[in-house]
Structure formats: C-alpha cells, structure tokens
C-alpha cells in the first residue's frame, strides 16, 4: 500500500514545476512574493512558502497561480482541507482547462491522503473529464476505486 501512496504523492510533485513557469501577475511585488515562496517550497520549507503565498494573495486574492501554489504548500503540511479550498478557488478563478484538471487531480490526492476514497475517485473522474490523457489521474482513479471496494467489504 505504501508503494502505491508514494506513487500517488510522486505524481503530485510532477505538477508543480509545470505550473510555476506559467505564472502571470498584475504587479511586481506579488511576482516577487510568489517567486520567493516557490524557492522556499523547492527547499522543502512549506510553512515559509505558505507565508509568502499568503502575502501575495493579499495583493491579488484571486490569482489562480498563487492559489494553486498555496494549495501545494498546505498539502505538504498535511492541511488537506485548506489545500482543497485553495485548489477549488484556483479552479474558480482559472480559465485554463488543463490547469483546472491539475487542481482537480490534486484535490483527489488530498482526499486520498485522508483515505476518503469516494471523494478522491470523484475528483480524479472530474480531472479526466477535462484531460482524458492524464495517465496519473487514470492510475489514481483505479487505485481509489480499488481502495473504495476494499472499504466496502
């Protein structure tokens, strides 16, 4: 089981570098706060990353990139409920369907981490509706579905 969870978590990390490079911000200070937050995140200091993302969100509270990154830092601190909220806000303020799919995938990972397999499976299904070629979401959906079957026995 731990091998499968580590694959699930490893898949989560694959998403961060792809999204960091696509950031857009309305002001320079916000961009610098997020850049510093990203540096802390990559160093493994998720609390400091969260603080920087929080400072950036004061200036631009609906920035989907910052909300996504905030979700990642909260996830790493096992604050899954707050991470889900940040991911959902990122979805609500994002026009890019692929990024929405990544947020949904990460929401699935937060539920999986909490052993909420029904909710995890639903999030992975929603991610696959947007991006049917996401093999990580497909794998995690199969895993979550199997875990749900095991729970129901």
Kindly describe this structure.
Helix content is 80%, strand content 0%. Helix 3 packs antiparallel against helix 4 and helix 4 runs antiparallel to helix 5. The N terminus is likely disordered.
Short description:
The protein is an all-alpha fold. The protein has helices spanning 2-20, 28-42, 46-59, 64-76, 80-92, 97-113, 117-130, 135-152.
Topology order in helix (H) and strand (E) letters: HHHHHHHH
Based on CA inertia axes, which overall geometry fits?
globular
Distance between the termini: 17 Å
Helical coverage, percent range: over 70%
Topology:
Blueprint: H1 2-20, H2 28-42, H3 46-59, H4 64-76, H5 80-92, H6 97-113, H7 117-130, H8 135-152
Helix pairs in contact: 1-6, 2-3, 3-4, 4-5, 5-6, 6-7, 7-8
Features:
153 residues, mainly alpha, 8 helices, 80% helix, globular, disordered N terminus
């Amino acid at each position: 089981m731990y091998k499968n969870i580590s694959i699930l978590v490893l898949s989560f990390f694959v998403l961060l570098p792809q999204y960091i490079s696509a950031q857009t911000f309305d002001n320079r200070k916000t961009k610098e706060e997020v850049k510093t937050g990203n540096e802390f995140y990559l160093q493994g200091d998720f609390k400091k990353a969260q603080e920087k993302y929080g400072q950036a969100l004061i200036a631009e509270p609906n920035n989907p990139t910052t909300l996504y990154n905030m979700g990642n830092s909260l996830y790493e601190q096992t604050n899954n409920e707050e991470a889900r909220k940040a991911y959902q806000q990122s979805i609500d303020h994002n026009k890019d369907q692929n990024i929405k799919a990544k947020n949904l995938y990460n929401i699935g990972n937060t539920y999986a981490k909490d052993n909420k397999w029904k909710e995890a499976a639903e999030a992975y299904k929603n991610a696959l509706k947007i991006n049917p070629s996401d093999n990580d979401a497909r794998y995690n959906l199969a895993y979550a579905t199997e875990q749900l079957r095991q729970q129901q026995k």
